Amino acid sequence: MFWTKRVVIGDGERGLVYRNRQFEGVLGAGVYRFFDPLRRIEVSVHGIAQAEYAGRDTDTLIARLGLELGETFVLADLGTDEVGLVLKNGKLEDVLAPGTRKLYWRGLVEIQVQRLSLADGLEVPAWAASRLRQLGALSKVAAVVDVPAEFAGLVFVDGKLARQLDPGAYAFWNFRKNVVAEVIELRVQSVEVSGQELLTRDKVSLRVNLAASMRVTDPVAARTKVAKFGDHLYRELQYGLRKAISAKSLDELLGDKASLDADIFAYVRGKVDAFGIEILGVGVKDVILPGEMKEILNSVVQAEKAAQANVIRRREEANATRSLLNTAKLVEESPVLMRLKELEALEKVTEKIDKLTVFGGLDGVLKQLVTMKQ
């Protein structure tokens, strides 16, 4: 009839009845007729396949329905220190921030709202983090930290160190808190200190390149006791190198690099142990001298080598002369040995002569070549 309003609510729908713009009731699936000659009744039809109630009068519905609210809706009313996990048909689908107040339709989708207290900890449960990662929503509601093997993670909450993390995947709610995570490498690392212009004790200018190996043994101390532990270590290596070079002359420096390495190692280790850094080794890679100093050192080396060669030559000459004298004494005392020497001499002579005419036999040749002592 003209004064009757007919309303049809489908299986996947619910109707909210308003009279004079005031909420009056909820309609389930079915056909309804309202006597409304003055057109004061409005029925708002909502699809419940999308479980979250999209209207703007959530607080009004909660107040008007009272104890009957649970028959139509699931209420998510979170405190300021609670996070809500919305499960639809047993699967996590959404996260509600602290202080959220929402309604979800009962019916097609089974809705559950789990409350997590932030006072119990900020870490996201592993099962929830895994599901939110699948949905691509984890980074929107949590600080995500992936700590590889041989690394350590540090979590700061509102600027204060809250926790050290072992290798693994973590997530922390960032609601109402400023959560920052850092990852620190625990593997052995190398540090290069290059092109340091230094003066030795005897005022010789040179450039030195230094290499060191280190690792972090206490990530908390390395991160909290010094602003940047890498820069601090580099500066201490510079200071240790300068101190060790200035305490040695050029000859000492070039003659014993091992002691230089040991001096630098001892100095730096004492300076960085308190900051959770372990020095494993220090070594001077290159000592680069100016061009003039190179020429002087080359001249010195050449003179030293020439003197050594002369000594060796004289020593060998003396040894040869002494050996020759000893041979002469033996020959003098033994006619047989003399005869053998004569035969050796004859052999050497005949090797260089193409044709030899002999008169008087071999004895004549020997007697003419060598006069033996009677």
Strand fraction: 25-35%
How many whole angstroms does the radius of gyration measure? 50 Å
Poorly predicted regions: none
Specify the CATH class of one domain. Alpha Beta
Can you give the helix content as a percent range?
Answer: 25-40%
The number of helical elements comes to 11
Indicate the mean pLDDT.
Answer: 84
- Name of the CATH homologous superfamily of one domain: Band 7 domain
What is the correct CATH architecture of one domain?
A: 2-Layer Sandwich
Number of strands: 18
Strand order of the largest sheet: 3-2-5
Largest sheet: 3 strands, antiparallel
The name of the CATH topology of one domain is: Tetrahydropterin Synthase, Chain A
**What structural category characterises the helix and strand content?**
alpha+beta
Shape: rod-shaped
How far do the termini sit from each other? 171 Å
Order of helices and strands: EEEEEHHEEEEEHHEEEEEEEHHHHEHHH
Tell me about this structure.
- A hairpin with a 5-residue loop joins strand 16 and strand 17.
- The strands form seven sheets. The protein has a three-stranded antiparallel beta sheet, covered by helices on one side. The chain has a three-stranded antiparallel beta sheet with strand order 8-7-10, covered by helices on one side.
- By secondary structure, it is of the alpha+beta class.
- 38% of the residues lie in helices and 34% in strands.
- Helix 6 runs antiparallel to helix 8 and helix 9 packs across helix 10 (335-351).
- Among the domains are: 189-289, Band 7 domain (Tetrahydropterin Synthase, Chain A), CATH 3.30.479; 290-333; 335-374.
- The protein contains eleven helices and 18 strands.
- The model has no long low-confidence stretch (mean pLDDT 84).
